[in-house]
Amino acid sequence: MITSTRIRTALGAFALGAGLVGCVDFTGPGIDTNPNSPVAATPRQLFPAIQAFQQASVIGDPARYVGTWTQQIMGVNRQWSSYARYGLVDENLLGWGNWYTGGGLLDLRIIQTVSNTAGDRQFVGIAQVYEALIMEAAADNWGAIVYKKAGVLQAVQSSIPVPALERQDSVYADLQILLDSAIVNMAGAGPGPGGTDLVFKGNTAKWIPMAHTLKARIALHQRNYALAVTETALGIASKTGDYNTYQSATTGEENGWFQFRRNRGTDISMGDSLVTMMQSRTDPRLASYFGVNGSGAYKGAKPGDEDDGTFSWLSATRADPGFKQPWVTFDENQLIRAEALSLTGNDAGALTALQAYKTANGVAFNFAAPATTATGLLTEIMNEKYIALFQNPETWSDYKRTCTPNLRANPTATAPNTTIPMRFYYDANERQTNPNIPVPSAQPVRNYVDGAVAPTPYSGGACLAQP
Question: Are 317 and 323 within 8 A, CB to CB?
Fold first, then answer.
């Protein structure tokens, strides 16, 4: 059991596990000791491996599953055709354990404990931000998760042999508190991770705004729009502050989408919903997102389509092995701000935030002033966010919360899953050893914060593809 019995092994090993080999260059500057060594692993050796492992876990296959469901991409071959028909029935397919062991929560808690003892508050704070980043994703995926009890020390573990699931809204509230603590800690003393930080090189002037944007993301999930407005004012202020994944042309460090195409061929194509939306808007990012097919056209697959050799793949830019995938960004910050301002009655401020986002992306600000009603403006904001967050699993959270854009379900889907999935199944190994995990048939269809019924789309009418 990953979050109970197996936690002893993870804490005792003080290491990441063999699954990380090849995810990061362990021979690079400052990483000259194998972090899989249970004796020698230090926070500076653990952290880059955790970053590399989690970027593959959170925005690897899970992002492709939900990208298929939100129709930004489409599964058109082999098992990916099944996933596009919502046939995700394998409980072990979704990587529950990746969030906890072998480069997950438990190793981040080790960094925090060791760094706190050493008086390195900056490292404590950065590790706390990363903990919030991955556990927010876990709560988005599964709803109720094991969080607080996942990190209990070995000395008291025997008193909690089977940790209970914690409700999604409770986890979000705890993560907000954790991020508040992280922001305070990052302003404190200590050298932090330095150059072993694969993305920001330990620069707290970048980590702190990222923490505020992450707080705004969680506030949006909590429907606390006033807090989202407050946090975005302190969040990522330009594209130079984006938190993007670490990738390179080095074997094992390549962009996961490059690796997917190399290993899986044409199992996935681009999705018609996103391609068509960008074409209808004459979006200047179209060529940087997608490549043309053999006829020189941009063509996305629709739900139910099978590969016929005519669908577009990623552009040379996004398919490059060194492409760094956006994860927490200025674009997201501005669009959270725009939506939250509109929902709190400040459409003028929402337009300002929307225009700042469009200007930064070279997109014409052609949203007509007479159309700035609540529904028109909110639909525009969410459509732009659907474009901006391409390949980011946050798009799924937005869709579950707003049903915007109002997608249609795959017409080839078969019972029992005929609508877009709203959550992941729990891991079977965890369920078999933890009686608090219900069998799939007893698991909820929707996560707690997404509500018992489908939301009304911002454009009005019925939500077409949610249960």
Answer: yes
Summarize the confidence of residues 438-453 as an average pLDDT.
Answer: 94
C-alpha 426/C-alpha 209 separation (Å) is 33
Q: Name the pairing type of β-strands 243-244 and 326-328.
A: antiparallel
| Distance of alpha carbon 256 from alpha carbon 56, whole angstroms | 7
- Residues 444, 446, 447, 448: is their CA dihedral positive or negative? negative
Question: How many C-beta neighbours within 10 Å does residue 166 have?
Answer: 18
Could you say which DSSP state residue 24 is in? B
> What are the CA-CA distances from residue 313 to residues 75, 206, 307, 395, 426 (Å)?
12, 32, 12, 19, 31
DSSP 8-state symbol, 22: T
Please state the pTM of the whole predicted model.
0.90
Please, where are the H alpha helices in 23-104? 43-58, 61-69, 78-84
Which of 451, 52, 392 is CA-nearest to residue 245?
A: 52
* Total number of domains in the chain: 1
Q: How far apart are CA 226 and CA 96, in angstroms?
A: 32
User: Domain residues for 382?
Assistant: 7-18+43-250+325-408+416-450
Q: What is the pLDDT of residue 148?
A: 87
Q: Would you say residue 178 lies in a domain?
A: yes
Q: What is the CATH number of the domain that holds 218?
A: 1.25.40.390
Contact assessment for residue 102 and residue 20, using Cβ atoms and an 8 Å cutoff: yes
pLDDT in tens, 162-199: 788 999 999 999 999 999 999 999 999 999 999 999 99
Q: Is residue 55 part of a domain?
A: yes
What is the distance between the alpha carbons of residues 410 and 418, in angstroms, rounded to a whole number?
A: 7
Helix (H, G, I), strand (E, B) or coil at 342: helix
Within-domain flag for 239? yes
Share of residues in the chain with pLDDT > 90 (%): 76
Confidence bin at 47 (pLDDT 50/70/90): very high
Structure tokens belonging to residue 368:
């007509």
Q: Residue 451: what pLDDT?
A: 94
> What's the confidence (pLDDT) of residue 151?
53
- In a domain, residue 277? The reply is no
Amino acid present at 305? D
Query: Is 418 strand, coil or helix?
Result: coil
Q: How far apart are CA 241 and CA 249, in angstroms?
A: 23
User: Hey, what amino acid is at 111?
Assistant: I
Token pair recorded at residue 255: 């962009």
* pLDDT tens column, 257-280: 999 999 999 999 999 999 999 999
C-alpha pair distances (Å), 297 with each of 20, 127, 271, 283, 313: 39, 45, 14, 15, 11
* Least confident interval from 79-83, 181-185, 371-375: 371-375
Q: How much is the pLDDT for 374? A: 60
